[in-house]
Each structure stands twice: as structure tokens, then as C-alpha cells.
Amino acid sequence: MSRTVIGVLGGPLTRRQNPAGESTLGAVVADALQTGAKPFDLNVATLVDLDDLHADLGKKHGELMVGDALEALPMKVGSSVLRLTGAELHQALEAQFAKHGNVMQVSSQLAYQWRSKPVVGLHVDPTTITIGGKVVDPVASYVIAVSDGLRDRADKHGKVRKGSNPVIAAAPLIVKGVTGVGGAHPGPLFDNLAAYLATRNPLAVPVLGRITLVSR
Fold first, then answer.
1. Under DSSP, is residue 21 helix (H, G, I), strand (E, B) or coil?
2. Handedness of CA 86, 94, 170, 144 (dihedral sign)
3. CA-to-CA distance for 158 and 57, rounded, in angstroms?
4. Contact assessment for residue 170 and residue 160, using Cβ atoms and an 8 Å cutoff
């Protein structure tokens, strides 16, 4: 079973981040989760914790085996669907820089710019955050799928924590006709990746550029 081929990669997918914080593996997993969460909302976007990705893929060969995919994305790593306002999404993106950890990986629907040195106290200019190419409205609500690492550390104050630092402002889980423990779940990251690969053969290595680091 572990040697069963579940897809073909057009090149290696790694966790290595570019200067803006993106990785090819993160982009693919985020896109796979975005596709898997489409039944909840056609305009869903995705945030993935880089720490939920445990290994690189495709470094030895183009064919991706079940065992290798499970090493990178253990079945225990799941996902949830949240409803965030544009302001809460901005707060989540801003919080990642305060925690001194990894930049969250984003799906193709979501893009934004950030600065290494904050301007007016902000790393992320909210006018640069777009979903589906449209600037997010601070008071409008958006459906966001997140990997477990961004949700399961929620404390009593509604903030997700990694260690002692808040990561993302938690929002009520959205349940659009699907019920489950804690809300709606697109399922494990592994299942979403396997389904994504099934319709893309070979899977092209994504061109990064969803997140832009502004030099000044």
C-alpha cells in the first residue's frame, strides 16, 4: 500500500521558503485544501501552517507514493472551515509576524503584501489583501479553510497559540449543511492532496508570488 502511486509530480515540492515566506509544497497543499473545501463556498481561500507539513515531496522521483505522502502529511493532520471577516483575516495575517515563526501558506485565491518593518504598526497593508483578485472588505465575511495547526491551539480567549504566542484570531466555525465535531471539516490534508493529484497528471510545480515582500 505504501508503494502505491497516487500521483506524478512535475518537480520537487519543498518546505523551503522564499524571501516572502512561500514554499512550493505549501502552495500545493493550500491549493489542494482550497479545492477540497469548494463545496462549502466557491470563493473559499486557504491558510496552511507550514509546521503541518512534515517532509518534502518528490526529491527522489516524480511518482508520489502513498508512504511518502503520508510522511509529509500524516492522516492525523486535518482541516476546518471558518468564517472570518476581512478585518479578522487581516488580524490573522498580522499575527503571524508577531509569533516569530513561519509565514502561513496561502492558496491561489488569496494574495497580499507585507513589510519586514511595520508601517503605522502594521506589517500587512489591508488594501493589498485580495481574495479572487478583489480587495477584501473589512466588514464582509469570507470562508477560510485552515489546517489543524492554525485551529487546534485555540485558547479560552479565542486565539490560536503556538507555544506562548497567539497565531490567528479564531472565528466561529461555519457549518453549511455539514455537521461534525467542532464544525465543518474538508478532511485530512492527505486526502485533499490525493484527490487534487488525481485530476492533475503530472502536477506542475507552482510559480510562487501570492505573497509579496515589499522591500521598502
1. coil
2. positive
3. 34
4. yes
Model pLDDT for residues 154-184, shown as the tens digit of each residue? 443 444 444 444 444 433 333 333 333 345 6
Contact yes or no for 155/161 (Cβ under 8 A): yes
The residue behind cell 485565491 is: 109
Could you state, in chain order, the average pLDDT of each consecutive group of 10 residues for the chain (216 residues)?
Answer: 81 95 97 92 90 88 86 91 88 79 91 93 95 96 86 47 42 32 72 93 93 89
Task: Report d(CA 95, CA 104) in Å as an integer.
Answer: 10
* AA letter at 35: T
Element containing residue 85 per DSSP (H, E)? strand 79-85
CA distance 158 to 139: 19
